[in-house]
Amino acid sequence: MKDFADIPALMTEIGTAAKQAAAELAFAPAAQRAEALTKAADAVWARRDEIIAANASDLEFGRNKGLSPAMMDRLALDEGRIDGIVQGLRAVAAQDDPVGAVTSAWDRPTGLKIRRVRTPLGVIGVIYESRPNVTADAGALCLKSGNAVILRGGSESFHSSSLIHACLVDGLRAAGLPEAAIQLVPTRDRAAVGEMLTMTDTIDVIIPRGGKGLVGRVQAEARVPVFAHLEGICHIYLDRDADAEKARAVILNAKTRRTGICGAAECVLIDRAWFDANGAQVLNDLIAAGVEVRADETLRAVPGTVPAVADDYGREFLDMIIAARVVDGVDGAIAHIRDHGSQHTDCILTENDATADRFFQRLDSAILMRNASTQFADGGEFGMGAEIGIATGKMHARGPVGAEQLTSFKYLVEGDGTIRN
Fold first, then answer.
1. Largest CA distance in the chain
2. What's the CA gap between 387 and 332, in Å, rounded?
3. Which residues contact 5 (CB under 8 A, 6 or more apart)?
4. pLDDT (0 to 100) of residue 311
5. For residues 270 and 332, is the Cβ–Cβ distance under 8 A?
């Protein structure tokens, strides 16, 4: 029995095992890693009743902790969501393997032949909150990309994540890969997070996935490089040349489909010319759906809205709440997003190509959309099978982080007795 009270010793043991597993994964055949994911998918589906029972314990824990309805939705699993986990594992298994892929090749006049090939990062630490499906997504993507992973899930999802992790280990075992390739920190003790952030000898990169508090702590304390996943303060700009029916459908979906995900719209910006011509129909749709619309001086005259305060702009609600403001054209929208956005996902609704081009060129969010719900800001919807998160920084990985984004590269250089003059 491990001593979970001695957190430094526990994390040292986990880190050492992960580093050893990573060395083996780096040259494990692609088919072997894919088999592990397929077998893990089989195990998740076979044990779905156990996972749902474990999730019931987590939901009770969350209720006692006073989690918001949106956070409870993030935590909840049912058979449909477990099927989504299974399909995600199978999709990642079926993808082209990124490890060893040649991204560029050229010959030099000296006779050298040079190739740049994808190589695993090594050991990845993933720190996340609430959503137990991240256990499967992160484990699958790290394994697909030849990396070992140390998972530290949120205390709320402890039981669900533990069972999903057990299924991933079943897959590793069935494929003959080291079980330490995917490890879950087996304690709720927050000291384990602090240890992970300083494990420079064994962890190559940390990926935080959670709220502003978690990401802020990781960025402030980490000595290991970090892929930042900041808030999803997603904007939708309703341009004067938008199609009304498209706009109504997209805005309602972007806010209400699932309010607790990082791709949920948190602010709608309405071109003054659109509002003058079309009125408050998109706000009325939101209000009718039960959304609290926090409106600026112009829009608060719309019945059912409430006055916005300054902090409502640039805020991730993760709830049935949205901020709303009138702006003067696309440049007004761009200025607002630059001031209040998080460089996650922002959308323009317009039929005007030139306006859309201006929006795309002058904003630098990780994901920019046109005439599509921000709820599509998801690695699975991008064809990656799954994602570890949406990276909002500008170094290495950006946007949905899938298997390919979890690789680096190395140069393979061949000569024939070649010497340098």
1. 81
2. 33
3. none
4. 95
5. no
Pair 183, 199: CB distance under 8 Å: no
CATH code for residues 7-227+401-414: 3.40.605.10
Q: What's the whole-number mean pLDDT along residues 361-366?
A: 94
Q: Which phi and psi (to 5°) does residue 368 adopt?
A: -120, 135
Q: Quick one: pLDDT at residue 3? A: 55
Outline where DSSP puts E strands in 59-121: 102-107, 113-120
Give how far Cα 160 sits from Cα of 88, 167, 169, 189, 335, Å.
Answer: 17, 11, 14, 17, 43
pLDDT of residue 321: 97
Instruction: Output the CATH code of domain 234-376.
Output: 3.40.309.10
Measured in whole angstroms, the distance separating CA 139 from the mean position of its chain's CA atoms is 13
State mean pLDDT over 64-78: 90
194 Cβ neighbours under 8 A, 6+ residues apart: 221
Residue 96 above 60 pLDDT?
yes
- Of 386, 403, 391, the C-alpha closest to 164 is 386
Q: What is the mean pLDDT of residues 93-116?
A: 95
Taken as a whole, the chain contains a residue count of 421
> Given the structure tokens 């999709």, which residue do they identify?
91
For β-strands 321-327 and 265-271, DSSP reports them as: parallel
Residue 185, pLDDT > 90, answer yes
Where are the CATH 3.40.309.10 domain residues in the chain?
A: 234-376
Cα(391)–Cα(61) distance, integer angstroms = 29
- What's the confidence (pLDDT) of residue 219? 86
DSSP state of 257: S
CA 81 to chain centre: 17
Q: Note the helical H segments in 47-178.
A: 48-65, 69-75, 79-94, 133-144, 158-175
Q: 408 Cβ partners below 8 Å, 6+ apart?
A: 118, 119, 120, 121, 396
Count of alpha carbons within 13 angstroms of residue 133, beta-carbon side:
23
Strands 205-209 and 148-152, bridge-based pairing: unpaired
In 3D space, the residue among 416, 287, 241, 267 whose CA is nearest the CA of residue 333 turns out to be 267
Q: Where in the chain is the domain with CATH 3.40.605.10?
A: 7-227+401-414
pLDDT at 360: 97
CA distances from 226 to 156, 390, 408 (A): 23, 13, 14
**For residue 227, what pLDDT is reported?**
83
